Amino acid sequence: MAGTYILGIESSCDETAAAVVRSGEKVVSNVVFSQIAAHQPYGGVVPELASREHLKAIVPVVRKALADAGQTYQSIDAIAVTQGPGLAGALLVGITYAKAFALNKPLIAVNHLEGHIHAVLLEEREKDKREKENREIRFPVLALVVSGGHTHLYLADQRATGWSYKNIGHTRDDAAGEAFDKVAKLLGLRYPGGPVIDRLSTHGDPTAVKFPAAQLKHPDRRRDQGCIADAGAEPRFDFSYSGIKTSVLRYVEIHGLQASIESRRKALAGIEEPKLEDYLAHCDTKTLNLIASFQRAMVEDLAAKTLAAARACDAATIFVTGGVAANNELRQHFEQAASMEGVPLYFPSRPLSTDNAAMIAAAAYPKFLVRDFAAEDFSAEAAMKL
Ligand code: KG4
Ligand code: ZN
Q: How far is the CA of 182 from the centre of ligand 2 (A)?
């Protein structure tokens, strides 16, 4: 079938992924190999282990993505790979492999955060094609990228030469996903914390524990609905999630929950793949209420700041993407808030919210069209900005 076939490769953190996407609008194959099992015993991602796991997985993962798509090296038009941000060693595995694999095919370097934004665009185009509609996305788009490493707000615009992004806010300390993971860890739940907290939250009372709102301190700055600006400077919509983790820890100490956390940790370590019932069997009401209240506070803060930014920037559309965008309560809460505000809101499907390579291939397509190819000597950029 006619079109441009791009093979995407993603290895920035703990997922080795490859995908083939046609013309930025159709996922032809999408393979994600998760390293969770390897990192599980350590309660989080171990960078050296991640690189080694990527080395083992990358060849079979790429082969499967090509085979699933009915493609070969000869038939694809370009290769796209994540350049950053992420773990330096992990990124290098994907980049080195992509360089060797590309030979004389065009190679396109993609920012992982841009990939998360294009996951939304890819699926919207796919939906339009399927339903034979053409729902134009209105600009400017305000995109919240909310993942394990980032909580960033961008104003995104489409130009003739490609996409442009302006960062208007980010976390000052922990990312939202990092807060989910750290709180889960301190409560004796398993890694990654987001999906576990998501499922357990429906079993607790989200109003039981009140958390103080994050204080973003800056002398001589004006605060207005989450907006922080120096006189004359552009407004910023920053986040902070290390305080809420400390509040959870304090609650644990004050209410003497340490012993039950330890016994939960031990019990869950003995179960290969704990199910919801296993978690529930080892969580008392107080703990479930704490979990539900933590999630409620996170979701409310993310939505309030994003909506305040949308208002201040006259955003015509909101995107919410990244691993935390898979959260059920977050989706419901954003949907209510955005519909009250009258702003169209888009999420990727859950499989494309978390790390994948289809989003990398999709973000590469506009670059392919303007022949924005990577220089031969390009390398990993662990702290790459968008
Ligand atoms: O985008 P992603 O897959 O990788 C990064 O780029 O970081 O995001 C992973 C993060 C982890 O912190 C994980 O706990 C969180 O996304 N996450 C969730 C959910 N699923 C994944 N957080 C809350 N609710 C979820 N359902
Ligand atoms: Zn990500």
A: 17
Task: Report the SS3 class of residue 305.
Answer: helix
Going by CA atoms, what residue is nearest to atom 8 of ligand 1?
323
Residue type, 55: L
Q: Show the tokens assigned to 94.
A: 């994907």
Q: Output the CA angle 33-37-41, nearest 5 degrees.
A: 150
Give the C-alpha separation, 2 to 23, whole Å: 9
Residues constituting the chain: 386
Q: Whose CA is nearest to atom 23 of ligand 1?
A: 194
What is the full DSSP assignment across 256-284? T-HHHHHHHHHHHHTSSS--HHHHHHT--
- Please state whether the predicted TM-score (pTM) of the whole model is above 0.90: yes
Identify the residue whose C-alpha is closest to ligand 1 atom 21: 323
Residue nearest to atom 1 of ligand 1 (CA): 323
Backbone φ, ψ for residue 289 (5° rounding): -65, -40
What tens digit of pLDDT does each residue of 33-84 get? Answer: 999 888 988 888 999 999 999 999 999 999 999 999 999 999 999 999 999 9
Tell the residue number behind the tokens 């990993």, with chain if given.
380
Find the residues whose C-beta lies inside 6 A of ligand 1. 13, 147-149, 177, 180-181, 192-195, 198, 322-324, 326-327, 354-355
Is the CB of residue 98 less than 8 Å from the CB of residue 42? no
Which residues have CB under 8 Å from 4's CB, separation 6+? Answer: 22, 23, 24, 77, 78, 365, 368
**Long-range contacts from 281-285, C-beta under 8 angstroms, 24+ separation:** 282/188, 283/200, 283/203, 284/260, 285/204
**What number of other Cβ atoms are within 10 A of residue 278's Cβ?**
16
- The neighbour count for residue 133, using CB atoms within 10 Å, is 9
Distance 244 CA to ligand 2 centre (A): 22
Give pLDDT tens digits for 94-132.
999 999 998 889 999 999 999 999 999 999 888 888 887
Query: Bridge-partner residues for 22, per DSSP?
Result: 5, 26
Determine the atom of ligand 1 nearest the C-alpha atom of 180: 14
Cβ–Cβ under 8 Å, residues 287 and 260: yes
Closest atom of ligand 1 relative to the 150 alpha carbon = 7
